[in-house]
Hints:
The chain is α/β, with parallel strands linked by helices and 379 residues long. 37% of the residues lie in helices and 18% in strands. The protein has helices at residues 44-49, 59-64, 68-73, 77-81, 93-107, 124-135, 137-140, 143-150, 167-173, 194-201, 220-225, 256-263, 281-293, 336-353, 359-376, and strands spanning 2-9, 12-19, 22-26, 30-32, 54-56, 87-88, 118-122, 161-163, 180-184, 208-211, 230-233, 236-239, 243-246, 274-275, 298-299, 306-308, 313-316. A hairpin with a 4-residue loop joins strand 16 and strand 17. Helix 5 (93-107) crosses helix 6. The termini are far apart.
Amino acid sequence: MSYKLITKDGSAKRGEFTTPHGVIQTPVFMNVGTAAAIKGAVSTEDLQTIGTQVELSNTYHLHVRPGDEVVKKLGGLHKFMVWDKPILTDSGGFQVFSLAGLRRIKEEGMLSDLEDFEVYMDSPLAVEATAVFHDNVSECFSQEAKRLIAEGKNPIRFPGLKMAVTSDESKMINFDMKPKVIISASGMCEAGRIRHHLKHNLWRPESTIVFVGYQTRGTLGRALLEGAKEVKLFGEVIEVKAEITKIAGISGHADKNGLLKWINSFTEKPPKRVFVVHGEDKVCDEFARTLTDSGYNATAPYSGTIFDLIQGEFVKEALPVAVKKKAAAKKRSGDMFQRLLTAGQRLISVIRKNEGLSNKDTAKFTDQIQALCDKWDRP
Length: 379
């Protein structure tokens, strides 16, 4: 993927992304396909007719419904959606921008006892996004970031930064016992590599799990933030001993004032009706009231509501349905020592599978196992 700046007027830019599935000219109208289903039109042909260039497919909703295996069996996301143009997924943004903060922490020595800690970016999409920003400094970076570049400081590159692209590279992170920061796309902890990192670190009191994105009700991420004492991952009950915390205000989504500024910019042709459909029920209701107080005909409809755009009236107004909490995981019989024995058996299995490795890789693997033994061996 590549980006080309076409014109610039102050902070406003017009550019062009070239992807394997087509060109996207920005700014762009982007239709939403939350669960890998074309929405906002009768058919894919309608979107082609009005010039839609890219479709948004939310990764969390995609994992929950229709599910990874269904999409895979039907030939992949493009065939499943009957859409041959670019598809945007919502992963990678924070991972890129968080690097700037971590660079500053390392540069200014804020962690004096851990000056040489490593930072692992474990998200293939974030790695690609970082490369795009790095290759398009003049178009993508802010004035502050460009000032750092002029001083010889790259905001998103620093000593100790490591990229994990393959699954093997991701797995090896958890065999390194040194203190580290792992940046991994969360998907609200319902899918992806983050679940493996949680399995290896949730039970460790010395670990800290930091959430920087929204975690909706009914997800593993939300359960952890609300104080779950144990969770189930890959069929195994994991005790939560790590510190669980969050940092607010890092989201790239517009806040209330940002949304009001956006909608009030339609001065020549303001919207006749506004539907608030993204967010928790209470927040949607309150923002709809805010818009109504500002003179807009705004509604926050519940799932299942039908509105006739031609007649300008509701055909059906659905009632709210409470989200059922997931049943608490049953504690597995046995104690934590049994988990340790199981992990040891798995390690033996992994060692056997790696017979035939090169001498260099075998030595590296051996050193990592020896380091683990040295740390936990008792006299």
